[in-house]
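queue> pop job 88
queue> type: inverse folding (structure -> sequence)
queue> payload:
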């Protein structure tokens, strides 16, 4: 009943393994309150940063533009950029509109006759007039704008009542930037067509290589700190352009590589353990009696991870080899005692030794669970869980699975029957 119930529960939960997730974002392993992580998260929210973008190197600028147009229509893509993105559309209409504005502002920006510098009394009169107008605006309305008008009016009044030297200092702080802004406005009202040849060389060098290859930048749509969003984005881009790179692709492919490597390592480890067990035990049935509880412990551990929404990551995945190493050791102890004809394993000193050993290791590794760093904490949590599951499989499931020993010996002292238990 115990064997059938355990196997049935494990098999019923096996579809959960298809939903086992892997958190491939290394930022999630860091302390979320650390200044560097907080700054990075803020930069992620800015569309101008390249925190989670994808990059493609196309053989030509025309090909880059075609790829950008193809990706721009996908729901997972927020925007695409190429060198042509910096060339405005409808330049003829825009230039005509700017020239019309330039004609209207010509007399203001290019006066025929320069006015003489105002005297201090003229400045005071102008400042007081501006202060009065702002005070009227502030009194006639409410809200942040009105409050700002009242505050500026009070400052201008103080400036008008101050010494001439104070107004000279204010002019030195305000007038030069204003002159610079007016110069830039004059230049901007004299537009010229923009082409790839007229773009700044530094900008062109970032997007177009001397051999003609061109860069395409793709930004994800949605919250890029969400692994689901980033995973869907990376998969979509790779389906269209398998040579894509960039942070989003690197995170996604790193997670796939690590997961695949650990699956291969797990298979090889189980194969090696099976060979060593066969050499030591010389019976296929005894090897299976050792491996089945180990596999059940591993499956239960991963199923609990899915049920508790606890993803694997670059840090805690190291606990899985520990599950194999420590778990098979516990199982061997029981197999050797069973082969020696020992009965009543659940009440034996062997079980107490296994429980104390497992809990000692679980507490030692599990202490990392209290770390403020999510990566270290998740490692301790998964190690604690894996050791707990492998101990339960060894203590509660394996003795029932083995059944009665082949050669039952008289029930003497535990230490005389099976010295390994005392060790």
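queue> result:
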């Amino acid at each position: 009943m115990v064997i059938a119930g355990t196997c049935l529960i494990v098999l019923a939960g096996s579809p959960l393994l298809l939903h086992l997730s892997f958190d491939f974002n290394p930022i999630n392993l860091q302390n979320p309150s650390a200044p560097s992580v907080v700054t990075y998260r803020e930069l992620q929210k800015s569309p101008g940063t390249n925190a989670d973008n994808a990059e493609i190197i196309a053989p030509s600028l025309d090909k880059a533009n075609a790829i950008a147009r193809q990706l721009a229509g996908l729901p997972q893509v927020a925007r695409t950029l190429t060198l042509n993105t910096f060339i405005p559309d409808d330049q003829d209409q825009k230039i005509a509109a700017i020239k019309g504005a330039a004609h209207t502002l010509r007399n203001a920006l290019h006066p025929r006759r320069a006015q003489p510098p105002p005297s201090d009394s003229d400045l005071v009169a102008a400042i007081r007039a501006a202060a009065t107008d702002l005070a009227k605006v502030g009194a006639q309305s409410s809200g942040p704008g009105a409050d700002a008008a009242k505050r500026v009016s009070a400052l201008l009044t103080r400036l008008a009542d101050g010494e001439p030297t104070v107004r000279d200092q204010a002019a030195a702080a305000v007038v030069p930037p204003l002159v610079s802004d007016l110069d830039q406005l004059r230049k901007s009202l004299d537009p010229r067509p923009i082409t790839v040849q007229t773009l700044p060389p530094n900008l062109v060098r970032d997007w177009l290589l001397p051999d003609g290859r061109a860069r395409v930048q793709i930004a994800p749509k949605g919250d890029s700190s969400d692994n689901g969003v980033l995973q869907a984005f990376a998969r979509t881009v790779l389906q269209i352009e398998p040579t894509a790179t960039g942070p989003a692709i690197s995170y996604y492919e790193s997670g796939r590589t690590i997961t695949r490597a650990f699956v291969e390592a797990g298979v090889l480890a189980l194969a090696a353990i099976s060979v060593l067990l066969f050499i030591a035990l010389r019976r296929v049935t005894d090897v299976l009696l050792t491996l089945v509880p180990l596999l059940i412990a591993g499956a239960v551990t991963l199923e609990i991870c899915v049920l508790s929404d606890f993803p694997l990551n670059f840090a805690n995945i190291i606990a899985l080899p520990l599950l194999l190493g420590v778990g098979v050791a516990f199982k061997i102890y029981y197999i050797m005692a069973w082969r020696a004809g020992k009965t009543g394993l659940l009440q034996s000193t062997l079980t107490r030794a296994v429980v104390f050993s497992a809990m000692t290791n679980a507490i030692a590794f599990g202490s990392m669970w209290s770390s403020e760093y999510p990566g270290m904490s998740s490692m301790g949590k998964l190690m604690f869980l894996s050791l707990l599951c492998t101990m339960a499989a060894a203590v509660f499931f394996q003795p029932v699975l083995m059944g009665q020993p082949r050669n039952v010996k008289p029930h003497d002292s535990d230490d005389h029957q099976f010295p390994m238990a005392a060790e």
